[in-house]
């Protein structure tokens, strides 16, 4: 062929970089006819700030942010930049490709391990549409390629997806599971967590055991050798996260549960990823990021420019229905009656909960793929689609589904999330993350300002959560107002002035009377701001990222200083969060070789949360900090010890065998009462003495704090806590309010970790503490007295104060630090 016949298509002049100009030059196909006002505003605002490293574009779900993202991607390509457009999953990759085709925008794509138009991406002729896994996995191909800009679509759902790429999961049927737990067993067998550890190893899914970092550090090299020998670096299910973690196991959390072992860093080491350096521009497209803390937790950024165009796009009308009844079954019956012949979608927190709906619908599995979702969306029949813990990534817009049933309060899928939520119980993190999951779940069926519909709430836990101002402040303003409107409608329904059937029919049918009613009231409600504590937590998240970066890079002294500072600041918000940071300060000190400081930090953390673990100590080389001022417990015990030393030792011996489960609860109650006295507290048994009140009460009058214990140590391992058991605790709370109304309480059921019956109504603060925790408290008390006896001459009051602090026996921490579960959480425990 003669070269004279070749014609090269070389564009003349510079390419436009203004995204609106790019849109005006497109050949439109499909459903796109024009650009909406909010889309135009977002693009203009971004264009003015395009040189910034980070821009958040916040548009309500259904507001057209995909088109906005595509135009920004093309604008950056026209600067000759290598650009990634990143989606949460392959389904959304394909949807984005379809949207680009409708706009005649050229693109490359990388997903399902295959390329489309790879050369054009390499030469910066097109941007590449891909998924989070391709970008963030440890051996991802984009780590080795030039990337100048990256657009994160649906950034509000990115946290779990990104963390999963840095998380190593070893299933309980993997030989590496038993080899790992064998190393940890010797430590746990000598602690109050021993039986719980064995439960987890034996397959109890509800058990989540955090391996203290001093144990992880001691075994890190051995674990690395075991894992490499076991082929962890060649197994397709583990090789990608292993690439990130292989050289830093001593800085990773290890969790053991019945499902397996999870290994993950407490903070994602974004500093190791080139996409987050100063040479890369990042655009985050988000619909439902409810707080700045959620964004900082996901991407490690603060003070990012936020573009939030005005307009009604995505402002869907929602009615929240608080399902009626005393238990889950009655809530379900109410939901089914209200749904009738209408289509609906259920999101359940677990496979077992989802089974309760299977007779009414079909459970979606990952292998069903997008085809199953599309079939449901297109169906005109009365169907129910059941999703298991899928709070993001599945969209059912418009008329495809207008009724969503949220079955229980959504919880995190990872062991890390579950540990923070339910074990260590850091309330600030728990509330913020729960809000994020709720908003994501609601976004499954509400995709635009015309997607009006109903959200039904099944379970007392989720109903109480959304009604609490302390929780709702983490939700977007419009959701808060819709919840308040729905709350007022509860009374109208109960008074039979209107029925839920009528309300549901009107909102789904688009009745004008509903529109007028909704518009006349929705703006009358005030919203709860997340407040100063949330801003404080945001600042802590950023500082935590700095501290962990030092730890990851081996700058242990700098890490230790930062973690100590974090712990001091966190104490003002949540002492449990402070303890978490103090534990990591202990690791930093241990890695730097400062054993004394490490032990001090580890012990202080454990004294606040026993789950964090107490290291073994060589008492011969241990020394206390000077200048200890004795407080009321030490003063009382020193006086008693001087006069009744022998009696106190005999009391210790007498109750030693009484911290066991069984039918004989009287001896156990007596043992808990005596233990309180031996800790220097006022301790007595109101129910025995006065035939009212809790079984045992520990009182610290000097600080106006108390602990109330209702013992149910006669429960069998296959039992549960009944409505009457919980009612007893609620009655005790009323009794306490009358007699000790100016005290701060800890209220607990003492017994096995068992399910709380659905019809029971525990308070948010009622705890379940296993008897093993009191056995551990007893053992520490024995050690206290042994050390007092063997420590020789000296100020007895000072000695008691030092040993009380050392063993974590100061009130109220001696109770609040014990491993516990919230009774309200145990309503969702699976049998």
Please sum up the structure shown.
The protein has 831 residues and is α/β, with parallel strands linked by helices.
Describe the structure.
- It comes from Anaerohalosphaera lusitana.
- Keywords: ATP-binding, Helicase, Hydrolase, Nucleotide-binding.
- This is DNA phosphorothioation system restriction enzyme.
- One of its GO terms (biological process) is nucleobase-containing compound metabolic process.
- Residues 46-307 form the Helicase ATP-binding domain.
- The protein has 831 residues and is of the alpha/beta class.
- The protein has five domains: 3-163 and 272-307, Rossmann fold; 170-264, no CATH class; 318-524, Rossmann fold (3-Layer(aba) Sandwich), CATH 3.40.50; 531-612, Serine Threonine Protein Phosphatase 5, Tetratricopeptide repeat (Alpha Horseshoe), CATH 1.25.40; 632-827, no CATH class.
- The strands form five sheets. An eight-stranded mixed beta sheet has the order 4-3-5-2-6-11-1-12. Strands 13-18-17-14-16-15 form a six-stranded parallel beta sheet, sandwiched between helices. Strands 19-20-21-23-25-26 form a six-stranded mixed beta sheet, with helices on both faces.
- A hairpin with a 2-residue loop joins strand 3 (107-111) and strand 4.
- Helix 8 (175-188) runs antiparallel to helix 9 (194-201) and helix 31 runs antiparallel to helix 32.
- The longest helix is centred in the C-terminal third of the chain and has 24 residues, at 632-655.
- The mean pLDDT is 89.
